[in-house]
Amino acid sequence: MYLFFDTETTGLPKNWKAPVTDLNNWPRLVQLAYLLYDSDGNQI
C-alpha cells in the first residue's frame, strides 16, 4: 500500500532558524488531503 499526503499552508516561515515556540513565524496548515493506493496502482 502507498499513502500520499498533500498539504496546503499559508506560506513559508519568515525565519527558518526561529524556535518552534515563535508561533507567528511558522505557516499554518489550511488543507490536508490523502490518497491510498494498493500495490497494483488501484486507488482504495
Describe this structure in words.
Helix content is 0%, strand content 39%. The chain has strands at residues 2-9, 29-37. It has one domain (2-37). It has 44 residues and is an all-beta fold. It is elongated and about 45 Å long. The chain starts with a strand and ends in a 7-residue tail after the last strand. The chain has a two-stranded antiparallel sheet. The relative contact order is 0.42.
Present the secondary structure layout.
Elements: E1 2-9, E2 29-37
Antiparallel strand pairs: 1-2
Oligomer: single chain
Instruction: Characterize the biggest β-sheet.
Output: 2 strands, antiparallel
Task: Label the overall shape.
Answer: elongated
Radius of gyration: 16 Å
Elements, N to C (H/E): EE
State the helicity in percent bands.
under 10%
How far is it from the N-terminal to the C-terminal residue, by CA? 9 Å
Number of domains: 1
What are the salient characteristics of this protein?
mainly beta; 44 residues; two-stranded antiparallel sheet
Quick structural summary:
The protein is an all-beta fold and 44 residues long. It has strands at 2-9, 29-37.
